[in-house]
Amino acid sequence: MPRGVKLTDYEKGQISALFKEGISKREIASRIGRSDRVVRNYLNNVDNYGTKKRKGRPRVLSDRDRRSISKATSNSTNSLRGIRNECKLSVSIPTIWREINRNPNLVREKMRKAPRLQQHHKDARVEFARNNMSRHWDQVIFSDEKKFNLDGPDGFDGYWRDLRKEPRYLSRRNFGGGTVMVWGAICSKGTVRLAFISARMNSQEYQNVLQDNLLPFINSFEGNEVIFQQDNASVHQGAVATAFNLVTLSLNLRVPSNQLSSLSIRTDHYTYYAMGFKAKLLTGALVITNNSKAIEKLGIQNKNAMLGCLGHRTEESLRSRQIDKQIQQIHQQFASAIKILLLGTAESGKTTIIKQMRILHINGFTEQEKRAKIPEIYCNVHESIAELVRQMDLLGLDYDSLNNRRSGQFIASIDELRPQDMTEEYRDHVLALWNDSGIRSCYMRSNEFQLLDCAKYFLDKLEAIARPTYIPSTEDILHSRKVTTGIHQIEFTVKIPKDMGGGLQEFRMFDVGGQRDQRNKWIQVFEGIEAVLFVISCGDFDQTLREDPTQNRLTEAVRLFSGVWHNRFLASAGIIVFLNKQDIMERKIQAGKSIGQYFPEYEEYKRLSKGGNFFDESDRTKHFIKQKLVDITLEPPRRVSRIADCTPRECFYHFTVATDTNNIRRVFNDVHNMILTENLASIGLL
Ligand SMILES: Nc1nc2c(ncn2[C@@H]2O[C@H](COP(=O)(O)OP(=O)(O)OP(=O)(O)O)[C@@H](O)[C@H]2O)c(=O)[nH]1
Ligand SMILES: [Mg+2]
């Protein structure tokens, strides 16, 4: 029973005063409106009234704590410790447990299992059902793996307990329990022989299971198309993840060639819900790749490539021979060198890419080879400073001082010849000139004349170059410039990625001169070229040709690309474009230049692409240049090629900085993968 309200000090004073006057306790109680008992209690123990303690241990949880525990526990999956932490309480775990138990609204329950189908899942299922109404389901073989426990099913050990009966116990073996994994498949024709597999089946084992159990069963279909379904588990995918693997898989399976011809491969897939499990249905396949990501990554175009289809015996043997031929072709493809031809206008960066291949795939440059580059670098320095001096007068610019003018005269007197050695005198003149503000202004206008791209790079490090101990670094070699004449080739090998079969791929790359008078030699190397790597300099948009100062360099490059794209002798070669010198282009844009000054159509492009996702002006500029090339590839063919078939050609674009080894490493890896994939596709395997 709840206690009554205690007497106030005023009431206590009233009781004491009335009692002294001799008034009875009952009378006092009625006068102050309280019970007889409280008046009696007070008068019996005036000094200690109201000081009596509660019995038992004080509660550790206040009402507020209990409310917060209740709130934190409600429908939560939190542990007792978690709830304690959430409520910031410093009580023991059993206290929390007791408090939750005491609460009649909270009981511990196992969460019920329910597939959470969102609307898009439901839509996908309806869509699938609609699309597959007329499918011949009697041709589908459904397969799956299942684990059986000797001790009973995992996780399903609950039961309805009748409290009037003895409890039931789950018999568990401490030793010798265990599980078996079984692979099975069913279809309208019956069941496929069960296979006992290991709990952690790998892709090799999966392949063996298919060979031993599925292939014999498939023969009973006697020439009709079969659809094999698997649930896309990683071991299944691992076995067939790439189309290249498909071939090796067929080989690994050691399928007799008449059975191999019954393999057909298609990559369409549908998700559906059947037999209580989610699966992907893959049509027309015994062993199928359906990894659409891999397919995209590999750039596979012919997604419905067929290795063969079930047919009569004669057709089978024909297909079998065809497949043997294809496999042979693959071996040849990988055995022979891939020939790549580098094309592009002068100074676009072709030779620089060849140097990068040397750095990346051969052992770079020896000390001796580096030393041999010194004269070339001296030449680059001299050509750069001499051109700047020559342009000072032509552009009407002034030197800072008379001394600097004399230095200019000294350089001009050397004429086109480079100094044999970097003498101190020569070095001092060049340094004085390079620090002259007139020369710097001249350099800022270098798009108006012909200056080497590497001018600033070498003039900035002139002091190091002029030292007698100077040995060019790899970076120096990448920046050095020498006009290419004739045809040069480089051979190297590159590792084939494991997921494409592994091994080594041999490459042969041809470098040609890009100047107009060199281009008539190109045709000599067109024969047998698998890929053309067309290099275009994006940084040249404001410059004119050395050979023809009336012609814009970028316009010339785009025109040349058109010629290469439509060239009938290159019709069967893949075209890869390197939109090079991104660094130079960015520098120019940052300095306030716009490609619109040289290509008025840029304003229209800018207007139309206003909503486009461009990071900045440089990004828009490089995509504008790319678009010019894309437009060419969309033009109708100029004439029907005698070599190429009529399938549409694709062009692959990369934005590059040829002097940056990391950039070229990355880009070349992509190019390599793309070529391998294209090769497989070209022989009908992808
Ligand atoms: N900054 C910068 N310089 C580059 C880049 N690519 C090439 N260069 C420089 O441009 C100059 C010309 O490059 P090359 O590789 O010789 O040009 P090419 O296409 O072989 O020219 P030709 O042999 O005349 O056909 C060299 O000084 C290179 O260092 C780049 O992406 N960025
Ligand atoms: Mg070259």
Automatic annotation (TrEMBL):
Domain Tc3 transposase DNA binding: 3-51
One GO cellular component term: cytoplasm
UniProt cross-references to InterPro entries, sorted A to Z: Gprotein_alpha_su (IPR001019), GproteinA_insert (IPR011025), Homeodomain-like_sf (IPR009057), P-loop_NTPase (IPR027417), RNaseH_sf (IPR036397), Tc3_transposase_DNA-bd_dom (IPR025898), Tnp_Tc3-like_HTH (IPR048703), WH-like_DNA-bd_sf (IPR036388)
Organism superkingdom: Eukaryota
Family annotation (SMART domains): G_alpha
Pfam name, any one: G-alpha
Binding site for Mg(2+): 351, 484
Residues of the Transposable element Tc3 transposase-like DNA-binding HTH domain: 64-102
SUBUNIT field: G proteins are composed of 3 units; alpha, beta and gamma. The alpha chain contains the guanine nucleotide binding site.
Family: Belongs to the G-alpha family.
Protein name: Uncharacterized protein
